[in-house]
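Task 17 of the worksheet. Students: predict the tertiary structure of the chain below and write it out as structure tokens. Keep your answer in the requested format; marks are given for formatting as well as content.
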Amino acid sequence: MSFSFLSASSHALVPYGWDDVWEAEFRPYAESGLVPGRVVRVDRNMCDVFTAEGVVRADTALVMPSDPMRIVCTGDWAAVDPEGGDPRLVRALLPRRTQFVRSTSSKRSEGQVLATNLDHAVICVSLAAELDLGRLERFLSLAWESGAQPLVVLTKADLVPDTTYLLADAEAAAPGVQVVVVSAATGEGLDVVAAVLGGGSAVLLGQSGAGKSTLTNALLGSDVQEVQATRDADGKGRHTTTTRDLVPLPGGGVLIDTPGLRGVGLWDAQSGLTQVFAEIEQLAQDCRFQDCSHQSEPECAVLAALEDGTLTHRRLESYRKLLRENVWIASRTDQRLRAELRREWKQRAAAGREMYERKRGGGGGHRHGRVH
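Model answer:
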């Protein structure tokens, strides 16, 4: 990427991810006298924005939409009032290149954007606790869907005598994704992670106790994030990070540390699921029926792979579970799909009642056709 067109004041933003494309998109705002900056922290209706003059405090009231997906988020590039404004206001956000989104736990099933304009989504998994491959696949689906490149980091390797099998299991659950074994205590794997993330924008994701803050401090070479002890009983930790903070890396690029995520609901992650379970999607192309559900159909390539051991039952069940969840979330947010599902459920219920009445009428001795 060439930076020949960058204005002199914008060069200070390059370590934070600024480039010619952002510069071109910002030009109309620059002509209005506004200055560019990257949101490094959000606190209710206020945010901290890194600009050419340093970090400034700005009010987000003017750009707070009714759509929760458009709320100012850590990682956004913003157009801010120039120096001297009191209070300084965020006037606009530049279009996001990527964004990591999960569904909220609310009954409204809204999407929540955790971080934006990312090159890498780093999924931290602690080896001090039992490896939950289903949860890893869930995170990976959202990571792929975000548009960022996933990276899996297995932390706290110093607490495990042999990581060979755990690494193999994680790699099998993350096709096409680099998996790195890391120990902040011994330094193992830190150089690999630093090399991958250097010069780009990355977000750290995972449960509490996954070692995100410890990893952040190790990569920064200083104790920027507070770290609390992990519980011995289950290997989990308390929430140490309470906000999503964007910090510059020593070798260039930025890192966003996030609070531990208890729940990670899928949000419109169909293409992400396709990439996480690429081998199942590939097998499905060889099924006899194009709409094969991989349950009991004849000549099902997926079931054949189960029988010969090339596909595990755990992997297939995880795939089915996440697919069902993704369809359900979509049905709650898409009126058209919701109506289609309602019609389908009514048809199934009607078919079930018809079968029941047939049996009551004496036709139970013979079953005609196949019930789906």
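Marker's comment: The chain has three domains: 8-93, 99-257, 270-361. Confidence is low (pLDDT under 50) at residues 228-239, 363-372.
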